[in-house]
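Re: folding output
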Amino acid sequence: MADFQTAIKATLKAEGGYVNDPDDPGGETYKGIARHKNAKWPGWVNIDLLKNKKGFPENLEDDADLQAKVYALYEANYWDKIRGDEIEDQDIAESVFDFAVNSGPRTSAKLAQIATGATADGVIGAKTLEKINTDDKRAFLATFALAKIGRYVSICEKRKESRKYFFGWVRRTLEGI
């Protein structure tokens, strides 16, 4: 079975640290956690307090409580929603998890379902898990990667400001194959 601790390390590396990009519709983010989408996340209290301290934003890494809150959010809101503990292959679990973080668990689940030929309802259930766990790994990862890239193209067509993220999204996708 796949391991959350291994998966989260790869995703956090891709997400980076503290960013406040005016072109990002999520606004202020920390390790991929967007303030606009997660306004009530308790980690923002830690971050707001540390903004006035020396060494911001590097000092965020030293706050053990903040790091625990990051892990807790990702486990409950993303890993558990894609049923990561029940996916047998670590690479597949990491790919589905990472895309869930990037696009939402329902979108990631739908694309995983499409990649396996399961009914695309956005919820990974027993039938989808069976298909994910018995599908050819290389075929799944390639099909899933193409579906992700297609989603990114669609985002960029709808929102021109997002084009500057496109090649980073594609690189992140291809690194997961």
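--- second protein (sequence, then structure) ---
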Amino acid sequence: MARTFGKSSGAGMLQWLGLAFIILLVDQFTKVLILGYYHLGDSTYVTSFFNVVRVHNTGAAFSFLAGASGWQRWFFTVLGFVAAAVIITMLRSHPGQKLFSFAMACILGGAIGNVVDRMAHGYVIDFLDFHWRWMDPVFHGGHFPAFNVADSAISIGAACLILDELLRVKRS
């Protein structure tokens, strides 16, 4: 008997896993370029508010726990795997909810991208450096903490999750 795929089955989920995979590929490709062309600490001026840099982050967002003794590498790696499993389960349950699934796919691709870094290098490679004078009171020299494509995808996914929830509440 032939199996047919509806919106709530594996076929719907495959498109979201495909998006997560594309995010992972773009993230890893950009990091390979940074590793190949930059030494740790190198920086290239691009505009008055943006540089390309090479930074190693052993912590999480905003270098949270970066100064810990090394246990955080494995903690954030396991956390990434757990998050990926939960997200895949959620995608299986809701593949037809486009904004929700888009958000989950972005977070999944980004989380796996940073897990790959932690496993391969022991740190996450960050390279996007935005800076504005008005941020001086909050960030040293006005430099927002450097980040990467995976971090961007996670942030976009989180914003889309909030938007999805706001729209859901508005509908009900």
